[in-house]
Amino acid sequence: MNIYDIAKEAGVSISTVSRVLNKKENVNEETRLKVEEVLKRYDYVPSGIARGMVSKSMKTVAVLTVDVRVPQYARIAYTIEREFSKRGYNVQLCNTGGDLEEAVQYLDIVTGKQVDGVVLVGSIFNRIGPDERVASLLKHTPVVVANGQLDLPNCYSVLVDDQLGISLAVEHLYKKGHREIFYLKDMDTDSAQRKQAGFLETMKRLGLDGKAHIRETMFGLQGGVQAVEQLLDSKAKVSAIVCGEDLTAIGVLKGLKRAGIRVPEEVAVTGFNRSEYAQVCEPELTTVDNKAELVGRLSVQLLETLIQKEEHYASMVVQPELIVGKSS
Amino acid sequence: MNIYDIAKEAGVSISTVSRVLNKKENVNEETRLKVEEVLKRYDYVPSGIARGMVSKSMKTVAVLTVDVRVPQYARIAYTIEREFSKRGYNVQLCNTGGDLEEAVQYLDIVTGKQVDGVVLVGSIFNRIGPDERVASLLKHTPVVVANGQLDLPNCYSVLVDDQLGISLAVEHLYKKGHREIFYLKDMDTDSAQRKQAGFLETMKRLGLDGKAHIRETMFGLQGGVQAVEQLLDSKAKVSAIVCGEDLTAIGVLKGLKRAGIRVPEEVAVTGFNRSEYAQVCEPELTTVDNKAELVGRLSVQLLETLIQKEEHYASMVVQPELIVGKSS
DNA sequence: TACAATTTTGAAAGGGCTTTCAAAATTTTT
DNA sequence: AAAAATTTTGAAAGCCCTTTCAAAATTGTA
């Protein structure tokens, strides 16, 4: 069933059917009723692809994320989807697994399908910038990087001030009297770099030695557990541990519990990202809210203005907030 | 830049350009090189929408879920996306928030855009079956319900045997010597119904009174906490608590801890769904693995055969597995 | 009643591709 | 060298809409 069949059945031209479908004003009431009856009778739905062909848009955007199973990304993907849905767009979800080749392939496919825009979620996407293919793929598609930056013509950013986030955590611990504050670096993304910089800067400002208090470990629960073991083995004096991820912090909590060290009485712990885990673990984790929902909303706003080619775009920076739990 | 421009620039017809684009064999090597040079020079990407127009497919499927921030749904959405990506499809994500009207709207939009298929994730979607509009919307689109069932012509299911899952938990507790086993009902979906039925059946089989050991509560952490309070207030003898959701079980753990009751020494607790939370909480939760990844994979397989109109479809049932943690 | 103004309708032109079919060019066979 | 077989190419139709523009029908005005 296409618009021609409907037109024939209703005894009108396709133009008239199109007018009825699009609820245009200039259709005789009698004609409209006749057409609508036929439409209903055949459960007719006009082809979105053909419409896209005319408007050159499928009202669809692509969201690239490392892995939507990571709560942080899920939250941001959720917000982006809901916001775009309100605006009449559908969202294509792409899990790149942190693999840049995979990301380039996704971009190839979705730009080929002429998505109206792309949101890249996470600072890991900063790394696809240098790829020569990316620039040409994204030449005609507006892009917003949520929590990242890409130095390309159509690309704008919504960033969280990670550096400030770590500052808040360190200052909070300092005020509580902690001096032997360690920072656990668990990844090697640009975001992690900024966190580390924030740690160093804040420690310096407080008159403490930051450099000697940085430890590296793997990402995830296990990384936190191991880091504690190593820290205790080294006989270092530890009064607080600042983590760049909640999951790592929870690993730290588990490690400390295993070693019989009480939190927060003997050692305080802070996480980052305000994941659901932070409320689930024991004791509830002090963490930094990275405002995922806000970042999602702002990304959508920004991308929409880009799509509509309005003329005033600007990258934005969002302030994180310290959420004090019972682990500090 | 369209195929006509490329053809003109290369001094050939659009048919030839199309052949080169689609890597067809019958093109003279010299001609091919000439066309490819032009293609590269202009960074030409053929319009996916126009292609969709011809093939009547955008190689896209829609996944409807209640909320991708719920880890269980995120896992299944992730698996579905990855599997479809391998097969050359993109996935549109839709968060209905459990609202049926919203779900119908999404279905309206995505079927209008002629998605090749739809996956509905969760037994909540069983409820849109009776809606008159749904049947007509889905008349020409293959549908798979993951963890649910819909009695419509093109609809098939991949189900987890929830009843068995609860049985495994109850039997496990029984073997450990527990007799005062309570079941916490926290939702009112079909899946929750089956879990409750599983509890009653198993208790009966073991010669215990099931009916008297069912308690209702709200969904989520808070629900678990409250349920414990009420249970303790009622002075009932409690030796184990079986929950239909990990999050509820974690609430129970928190409630018990608050009341100074040791887990698992005094009361054992089990969850459901094998969420990440189960490993994060203290003590680690005994839970039932609902095989989200497997369900996702099977759903994709099934939907693909439906899309390709192969002739042998069958709904499937997946066996859950008990994961014994430290809470029982 | 004749004319202008307005409302309602339809024909036709895109939009950018794939595909079919026949023509042209080339190679092989006799 | 002519005929047959094969490879390579292009014209044109089709996919299903929206939109423009002009024609037809209706209403209002003089």
Question: Could you describe the 3D structure shown?
Answer:
2 copies of one chain form a homodimer. By secondary structure, chain A is of the alpha/beta class. Chain A has 3 domains: 3-55, Orthogonal Bundle (434 Repressor (Amino-terminal Domain)), CATH 1.10.260; 60-160 and 292-319, Response regulator (Rossmann fold); 162-289, Rossmann fold, CATH 3.40.50.2300. The first copy, chain A, is 45% helix and 16% strand. The first copy, chain A, has 13 helices and 12 strands. Chain A has helices at residues 3-10, 14-21, 29-41, 48-55, 71-86, 100-112, 132-137, 162-175, 190-205, 221-233, 246-258, 277-280, 292-307, and strands at 60-65, 90-95, 117-121, 143-146, 155-160, 181-185, 214-216, 240-243, 268-270, 287-289, 316-318, 321-323. The first copy, chain A, has a 6-stranded parallel beta sheet with strand order 2-1-3-4-5-11, sandwiched between helices. In chain A, helix 1 packs across helix 2 (14-21) and helix 8 runs parallel beside helix 9 (190-205). Chain A is elongated. At the A-B interface, helix 4, strand 1, helix 5, strand 2 and helix 6 of A face helix 4, strand 1, helix 5, strand 2 and helix 6 of B. Chain A binds a DNA duplex (30 and 30 nucleotides) through residues 2-4, 12-16, 18-19, 21-22, 26-28, 31, 46-47, 49-56.
Low-confidence stretches of chain A: none
Order of helical and strand elements of chain A = HHHHEHEHEHEEHEHEHEHEHEHEE
Which shape of chain A, going by the Cα principal axes?
A: elongated
**Average pLDDT figure of chain A:** 94
Level of helix content of chain A?
40-55%
Task: State the name of the first-level CATH class of the largest domain in chain A.
Answer: Alpha Beta
**Ends of chain A: how far apart?**
66 Å
**CATH architecture annotation name of the largest domain in chain A:** 3-Layer(aba) Sandwich
> Which chain pair shows the most residues in contact?
A-B, 53 and 53 residues
Number of helices of chain A: 13
Major sheet of chain A: order of its strands? 2-1-3-4-5-11
Number of strands of chain A: 12
Beta content of chain A comes to 15-25%
The CATH homology group name of the largest domain in chain A: Response regulator
Oligomeric state of this protein: homodimer
Return the domain count of chain A: 3
The computed structural class of chain A is: alpha/beta
